[in-house]
Amino acid sequence: MSIEITAKRLEALGNSSRLEIFRLLVKAGRDGLPVGTVQERTGIARSTLSHHLHRLIAVGLVTQERQGTVLICRADYDVMDETVGFLVSECCIGTGGR
User: Fold this and answer.
1) Does this model's pTM top 0.70?
2) What residues does the HTH arsR-type domain cover (predicted)?
3) Residue 94 falls within a domain, yes or no?
4) Which of 3, 19, 23, 95 pairs with 29 at a CA distance of 20 to 30 A?
């Protein structure tokens, strides 16, 4: 994974509202949450929430799936693991340990 991709993902999570949304989706598990539930739990206005979700989707941290009239949002755990793994993969190399 490139440093540019990692930087974009971390930049997206650098906003407190997006971080709150992402943490909520991570806690929700693989079933995810409907957009309406995310809005209720965060109190973020729908238009603002839509903006934040699109940003998280653009960098691959969140996916959306339409189920009838409901949009289900899910954290992408593989992308999350890849991003965190990138940060810790070279931890303390050359120093003999943490």
Assistant:
1) yes
2) 1-95
3) no
4) 3
